[in-house]
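lol so apparently i was supposed to do this last week
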Amino acid sequence: MIAKRVRDVPFSGIRKFFDLVMRSEGIISLGVGEPDFPTPEPLKDAAIRAIEDNYTSYTSNYGLLELRERIAKKLRTRNDINRSPENEILITNGVSEGLDLAVRAIVDPGDDVIIPEPSYVSYTSNVWFAYGNPVTVPTTEENSFRVRSEDIVERLTKKTKAILIGSPNNPTGNILRKKDLEEIAGIAVEHDLVVISDEIYEDLIYDNEKHYSIASLNGMGDRTITLNGYSKPYAFTGWRLGYVAAAVEFIEAMVKIHQYTQICASSISQHAVLNAFELDDYVRDMVKSYDLRRKLLVKGLNSLPDVSCIMPKGAFYAFPNIKETGLSSAEFAERLLKEAKVAVIPGDAFGRSGEGYVRCAYSVSRENISGALDRMQKFMEKL
Ligand code: PLP
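anyway here it is w/ pyridoxal-5'-phosphate bound
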């Protein structure tokens, strides 16, 4: 009784792996891609106040106007993106919903969407569920997992509708440089394509690298759908709050779907974000802590036999190369789990070009990172 499109999609490789983790005990998990910090106190207090003050009804389909105004200001000052809070910003139930809306708003059956990979697990399946055709473009460790424009151009067809990028990237931790984005923008303008840009890890960036929004580049303002949200910077993945910024035509199309499927984003989460102040210090402290964990993990991974890892520049993932072990990603991750009780995600869960790698999240304590590295050292010696 299940539709073919849905039957054709396998469960996320992450989920499959987690079923295994759940059945085992004493595991150190580098698998979960979410902050281990508690949500900052001002947000918790503001959410409790929102409930006590009875801000518990539906909001406008677009979300609270005051919050959209705040977002518009942030986009203007930080991202050099100019969008009207009235009708060019939509508040969503996380970036996940924004991604689904963006894809469904623009993809007709059979349209191609170009996706550099390894990529976040939802990108290809969202395109597939929208009756589109995900066209993946492999990236390589040698190029720091940055997509090359010639590899995109090679895959363009008459059916190509959009390019979907995520930077900083899950799972590789790479970031696209301004030059990379300019090249992608050039292709989009020349071939009249939409760009969907997932910027959820914008705040989690290290080594004085800078995040650029492709929407701010020449010719891109009206053809880019920018996705962003609060799950990662505010450490509240369960609160489900994100937003989309794009030209009015895109947002109107997305609101059509959103009003019939979601009505609005959580009123409590919206009020909390609007009324919580001085969050920057919390975010800065979390980023500092991720940075220390990043260095600890990558140094440790590089000291293991048969493992090498390039330094990730953003998000909270390292993507070590395990090809020298002679094991596939899945074999490596399964044996590491069973024999050393350390959970990592097989790289092929993020696309074929992730084969030969595993994803290790460093959104866990330094004690757990050190513990996982000790266990990995013993595992590798036995291997
Ligand atoms: N985009 C990327 C790249 C992610 O890694 C995630 C979550 O891990 C999401 C989107 C989903 O975020 P949200 O919690 O806002 O739906």
